[in-house]
Amino acid sequence: MLLFKLLSVCVQKMRIYCEFFLYFSPMMGKIGWVIFMKANKNDFNKYSEAIDKIQEGNESMIELFNELEDDDPLINFGQDVIDDIGKAKEKFGDETVDKKINTVVREMLSWLNLNEEE
Protein backbone atom coordinates (compact mmCIF):
# COMPACT_ATOMS: atom_id res chain seq x y z
CA MET A 1 0.00 0.00 0.00
CA LEU A 2 1.40 3.34 -1.00
CA LEU A 3 0.53 6.40 1.05
CA PHE A 4 0.64 9.84 -0.44
CA LYS A 5 0.36 12.70 1.96
CA LEU A 6 -2.13 15.12 0.44
CA LEU A 7 -3.12 17.57 3.09
CA SER A 8 -2.53 18.49 6.69
CA VAL A 9 -4.95 20.77 8.47
CA CYS A 10 -5.35 22.01 11.97
CA VAL A 11 -8.94 22.12 13.20
CA GLN A 12 -8.84 25.51 14.91
CA LYS A 13 -11.62 25.26 17.48
CA MET A 14 -10.57 21.95 19.01
CA ARG A 15 -6.89 22.29 18.02
CA ILE A 16 -6.89 18.74 16.72
CA TYR A 17 -4.28 18.06 14.12
CA CYS A 18 -5.56 15.99 11.22
CA GLU A 19 -3.59 14.45 8.39
CA PHE A 20 -5.41 13.17 5.35
CA PHE A 21 -3.78 10.55 3.16
CA LEU A 22 -4.88 9.09 -0.10
CA TYR A 23 -3.92 5.46 -0.41
CA PHE A 24 -3.73 3.18 -3.40
CA SER A 25 -3.48 -0.58 -3.13
CA PRO A 26 -2.25 -1.98 -6.47
CA MET A 27 -2.92 -5.57 -5.40
CA MET A 28 -6.53 -4.82 -4.46
CA GLY A 29 -7.06 -2.09 -7.03
CA LYS A 30 -8.55 0.27 -4.43
CA ILE A 31 -8.15 3.95 -3.70
CA GLY A 32 -9.33 5.45 -0.42
CA TRP A 33 -8.72 7.92 2.39
CA VAL A 34 -6.93 7.47 5.70
CA ILE A 35 -7.23 10.14 8.38
CA PHE A 36 -4.83 10.41 11.32
CA MET A 37 -5.79 12.71 14.18
CA LYS A 38 -3.58 14.01 16.97
CA ALA A 39 -4.57 16.02 20.03
CA ASN A 40 -3.22 16.84 23.46
CA LYS A 41 -4.94 15.34 26.53
CA ASN A 42 -7.09 18.42 27.23
CA ASP A 43 -8.35 18.69 23.65
CA PHE A 44 -8.86 14.93 23.50
CA ASN A 45 -11.12 15.15 26.58
CA LYS A 46 -13.11 18.05 25.08
CA TYR A 47 -13.57 16.14 21.84
CA SER A 48 -14.59 13.00 23.74
CA GLU A 49 -17.17 14.95 25.78
CA ALA A 50 -18.57 16.52 22.61
CA ILE A 51 -18.98 13.09 21.02
CA ASP A 52 -20.68 11.80 24.19
CA LYS A 53 -23.18 14.69 24.08
CA ILE A 54 -23.90 14.05 20.41
CA GLN A 55 -24.48 10.37 21.19
CA GLU A 56 -26.84 11.25 24.08
CA GLY A 57 -28.81 13.50 21.73
CA ASN A 58 -29.02 10.74 19.13
CA GLU A 59 -30.24 8.26 21.74
CA SER A 60 -32.91 10.73 22.90
CA MET A 61 -34.11 11.28 19.34
CA ILE A 62 -34.27 7.51 18.71
CA GLU A 63 -36.23 7.04 21.95
CA LEU A 64 -38.70 9.76 20.93
CA PHE A 65 -39.04 8.21 17.48
CA ASN A 66 -39.70 4.76 18.94
CA GLU A 67 -42.45 6.19 21.17
CA LEU A 68 -44.31 7.90 18.32
CA GLU A 69 -48.02 7.26 18.23
CA ASP A 70 -50.30 7.39 15.22
CA ASP A 71 -51.90 10.78 14.85
CA ASP A 72 -55.41 9.79 13.89
CA PRO A 73 -57.72 12.79 13.51
CA LEU A 74 -60.82 12.85 15.70
CA ILE A 75 -62.90 14.02 12.77
CA ASN A 76 -62.06 13.39 9.12
CA PHE A 77 -63.11 16.70 7.59
CA GLY A 78 -63.51 16.94 3.83
CA GLN A 79 -60.92 19.04 2.02
CA ASP A 80 -63.50 21.74 1.28
CA VAL A 81 -64.28 22.06 5.01
CA ILE A 82 -60.57 22.19 5.86
CA ASP A 83 -60.11 24.97 3.29
CA ASP A 84 -63.05 26.92 4.70
CA ILE A 85 -61.79 26.56 8.28
CA GLY A 86 -58.41 27.90 7.13
CA LYS A 87 -60.07 30.90 5.45
CA ALA A 88 -62.21 31.56 8.55
CA LYS A 89 -59.15 31.43 10.81
CA GLU A 90 -57.33 33.91 8.59
CA LYS A 91 -60.30 36.27 8.62
CA PHE A 92 -61.53 35.94 12.24
CA GLY A 93 -58.54 34.45 14.10
CA ASP A 94 -57.83 31.00 15.51
CA GLU A 95 -59.44 31.54 18.91
CA THR A 96 -62.76 32.78 17.53
CA VAL A 97 -63.10 30.00 14.97
CA ASP A 98 -62.06 27.30 17.45
CA LYS A 99 -64.62 28.58 19.95
CA LYS A 100 -67.43 28.58 17.32
CA ILE A 101 -66.58 25.07 16.07
CA ASN A 102 -66.47 23.74 19.65
CA THR A 103 -69.87 25.31 20.38
CA VAL A 104 -71.45 23.72 17.28
CA VAL A 105 -69.91 20.29 17.93
CA ARG A 106 -70.87 20.41 21.64
CA GLU A 107 -74.48 21.19 20.66
CA MET A 108 -74.55 18.41 18.05
CA LEU A 109 -73.16 15.89 20.55
CA SER A 110 -75.85 16.85 23.07
CA TRP A 111 -78.43 15.45 20.65
CA LEU A 112 -76.85 11.99 20.74
CA ASN A 113 -77.73 11.06 24.35
CA LEU A 114 -74.19 9.92 25.10
CA ASN A 115 -74.84 9.40 28.83
CA GLU A 116 -77.75 6.97 28.43
CA GLU A 117 -77.19 3.23 28.25
CA GLU A 118 -78.84 1.40 25.38
TrEMBL record:
Swiss-Prot/TrEMBL keywords: Membrane, Transmembrane, Transmembrane helix
Ranges that cross the membrane: 20-37
Pfam short name (any one): Mistic
Superkingdom of origin organism: Bacteria
InterPro entries: Membrane-integrating_Mistic, Mistic_sf
Lineage: Bacteria, Bacillati, Bacillota, Bacilli, Bacillales
Protein name: Protein mistic
